Amino acid sequence: MGLKVSNVGVYGFQYAIKALKRFYNSNLSSSSETISFGDGYIPNKNDLAIMRTHVKESNSKAKFTRFIQVYFDVDAPLHWWLAFKDYKIGVEKITDPINKKLFKEPLTINSFDVDKEIPECVQIINKVIEGINPLITLYNTSNAAESKRAIVRKIKMVLPHSFIISGTITTNYQTLRSICLDRKESKSDEWISFHQFIESLPYAEFLISAD
């Protein structure tokens, strides 16, 4: 599965334009097309050209892009979430608690990001599932808090980083630009997919990936 982004919302274009005019005294057009996008407006070509210039010059001149907020859900393996923790400034995220997800139901091959075309990987994950599922059953039938803690510890020690976690993230265009530049050389399938998501956002070529 890799990384999957869904339920994307982008808001605040009109505030970004206002902020740029207010803070940088830019000669933005006063007649930007008022085509609704979320609760914002899509800027016209002249506005976009000026915005792109500011984005390319420096982070300080591009801070108006912080007004463009992005909300989205992510399904990704645990190892991607651990790497994404590096991005704290301008990012808020809430993920499903591992404990609750682990003990909700028995694990299956679909609980993990595994290439089913590679038999060795499937065999390894199936062995992990065979070892963990009895512990999940034991956890759900135990009434002793101490025993439950011991079971959780055992599972976490052997749980592969391919275990899929779901979460919701909110961030902004300037932060996404920083992530995009930081990870653009990554060969990881998950970061490639995330980069493609960033590039698919409205006017990303002007406001995020401009070079």
Count of strand segments: 6
Contiguous runs where pLDDT drops below 50 for at least 5 residues: 30-40
Topology as a string of helices (H) and strands (E)? EHEEHEHEHHHEHHH
Given the structure, what is the number of helices? 9
The residue fraction in helices comes out at 40-55%
Break the fold down into its secondary structure elements and pairings.
Elements: E1 4-11, H1 13-24, E2 36-37, E3 40-41, H2 45-57, E4 69-77, H3 78-84, E5 92-95, H4 98-102, H5 119-141, H6 145-158, E6 164-172, H7 173-183, H8 189-200, H9 204-207
Antiparallel strand pairs: 1-4, 2-3, 4-6, 5-6
Helix pairs in contact: 5-6, 7-8
Q: What report would you give on this structure?
A:
The protein is α+β, with helices and mostly antiparallel strands. The protein has two domains: 4-95 and 165-207, Gyrase A, domain 2, CATH 3.30.1360; 98-162, no CATH class. 48% of the residues lie in helices and 16% in strands. The protein is built from nine helices and six strands. The strands form two sheets. Strands 1-4-6-5 form a four-stranded antiparallel beta sheet. Strands 2-3 form a two-stranded antiparallel ribbon. Strand 2 and strand 3 (40-41) form a beta hairpin. The longest helix is centred in the middle third of the chain and has 23 residues, at 119-141. The chain is elongated and about 65 Å long. The chain starts with a strand and ends with a helix. 26% of the residues are buried. Mean pLDDT is 85; it is low at 30-40.
